Each structure stands twice: as C-alpha cells, then as structure tokens.
Amino acid sequence: MTFIDDLLAESEQRELEMNKLKADQLLMAISVLEGKMEDVNKLADDEIQIIESYRETELAKLEKKSSWLAWNLEQFIRSTKDKTMKLPHGALKLRLGRDKVEVSNLDVFMKQAPKLGFLKVIPESYEPDMQKINEYIKSRGIIPDGVSMTPAKTKFSYTTLKGEAHESSETRTATERVSEVETVEG
C-alpha cells in the first residue's frame, strides 16, 4: 500500500485529527486523486474516440455495400416495364418527379407575363406564378421567353420490411427515358 492508500484507509476508519501537516497531506492526496481522475477521463475519451472511429469505418463499409445493392435493384426495375414491384422483403418503385420551371430572365419574362396571366398579385409586388407557367408549358408545349424548364426526373426508391423508405439520388430525365425506350424497342 502507498502512502495515499494508507491516508485514505485511515480517513475512512475514523475522523482524522487535523493539524497543518495532516491538512497538507490530505491536499496532496486530493491532488493525486484528481490526477488519477484526469487519467481515467483521458483513457475513456481515447477509448470513445477509438470506438467512434470504428463505428464510422464500419458504417461507411456497410453504407457502401447497401448503396451498391440499391443501385443493382434500381438497374433491375429499370430493365423491367414495371413502375412498382412488391416483393416478400419490401417494394421497389419508380416515380416521375415534377418538371421544374425557373424564370431565368425576369425583365424579358415581365414583358409578356401580365398578358398570359403568369403573375401572382401580392400587394405592392409581382411574382411569377410557377404553377400557371408550368400548366401553360404542358398545355401548349411552348416555353415563354425568359423562362427555362428542367424536365422531371424518375426517382427510384425501395422499402424494406422494416418499413424504412429509401430514395436514390440517381435519376433520369424524360429525354433519357424516351431514348432508353427507343433503344429497348429498336
């Protein structure tokens, strides 16, 4: 047993008789104990860092494998004519997103917008009505001056039995879908 251990054992057994020497010895014992607490905290922090690093590495590996499997599932459903496929362990889906309309040149757009009814009236300001612009483009097939349109993309998603839905960021535009269909049919 060390001197510190002797002091602690003595203090636990009975009340200490205090004097300057004893008080100084107790302060030294507290200082040693605080050092040990710092060592324990440092060791625990180091272990936590090792565990976090392990977790990140293992999760990255698993995510990579999961992404690869999801990519294969997407390729599979795209090779079929099905939009939805229910399977015993989940479901695969292909869904067409929405076309994105954007006013690229506000000055040019504003010259024709009032005639075509493409403005929302908000007191003291005018703002392009994206919904009306989108409906106009769909019905007439004409993109107004000062407007650009990004075609909708088909999104792939799958659901597992756990009920967790996953959506792929890899998408295709309507033009790519048309050329793909022509390739398959031709």
Which descriptors apply to this entry?
alpha+beta, disordered C terminus, two-stranded antiparallel ribbon, 5 helices, 24% strand, 56% helix, single chain, 186 residues, elongated, 8 strands, four-stranded antiparallel sheet
Describe the overall structure.
- This protein is α+β, with helices and mostly antiparallel strands and 186 residues long.
- Among the domains are: 3-58, no CATH class; 100-150, no CATH class.
- Helices cover 56% and strands 24% of the residues.
- The chain contains 5 helices and 8 strands; from the N terminus they run ααβββαββαβββα.
- The chain has helices spanning 3-13, 20-79, 106-116, 130-140, 174-185; strands at 84-87, 90-96, 100-103, 119-122, 125-128, 147-150, 153-160, 165-173.
- A hairpin with a 2-residue loop joins strand 4 (119-122) and strand 5 (125-128).
- The N and C termini lie far apart (89 Å).
Distance between the termini: 89 Å
Average pLDDT figure: 81
Largest sheet, in brief, is:
4 strands, antiparallel
The strand count comes to 8
Strand order of the biggest β-sheet: 1-2-7-8
How many alpha or pi helices? 5
Strand content: 15-25%
Task: Provide the low-confidence segments as ranges.
Answer: 170-186
Q: Radius of gyration, Cα only, in angstroms?
A: 35 Å
Helix content: 55-70%
SSE ordering: HHEEEHEEHEEEH
Shape descriptor reads: elongated
Please identify the structural class as seen in this structure: alpha+beta
